[in-house]
Amino acid sequence: MSIRLGDEAPNFTADTTDGPIDFHEWKSGSWAVFFSHPNDFTPVCTTELGRTAALQDEFTKRNVKAIAVSVDSLADHNGWAPDIKDVGGVPLNFPIIADPDRAVSMTYDMLHPGEDDTSTVRSVFIIDPSNKVRLTLTYPKSVGRNFDEIVRVIDALQLTDASPVSTPVDWTPGDRVIVATSVSTEEAKKRFTDVEEVKPYLRFAAQP
Ligand code: BEZ
Q: Are 38 and 120 in contact (CB under 8 A)?
């Protein structure tokens, strides 16, 4: 089943390194970064999970909970956790789902036979507090993800949810934003600062 932007994130129950969870109950009221990695005790994955642990304060500031999944067992996840701490410099501080029967991975379409049908690819789902899927990413096994980009997207989603703006190419927090076309330039000048009309349909403003 492919999951599209705007879909409700499917619920599931699973065993994790923090104990059994019901996904929707676990994330209740929070954003979630739900991501898969191919296997425990592998180099790229160790760097990715180490970085996720190190980003915990950034996620907490944004009301985001991180959760990982792979087809490995709970015993493997627990055995691997000290390596994640060694590499990331921070103890494992988010749950890793054990999915040996691939039930969760299949629900979220994280198994790609062309890559290797026995383990998950590097998928990311950013899910909002109402359980709506707001972003999906899929990377091949050989390419580690950029977790700064994941945090940047969360910032952009939270900003554009709060105001009638969108974010331009290569936006990072503090950069100018684009005023929604539903807002007239006259109204934009009342509502935002430093409004610049580059085209009738492209008006920049300072980040609200
Ligand atoms: C890794 O994490 O390094 C990795 C895992 C599976 C396939 C390729 C690389």
A: yes
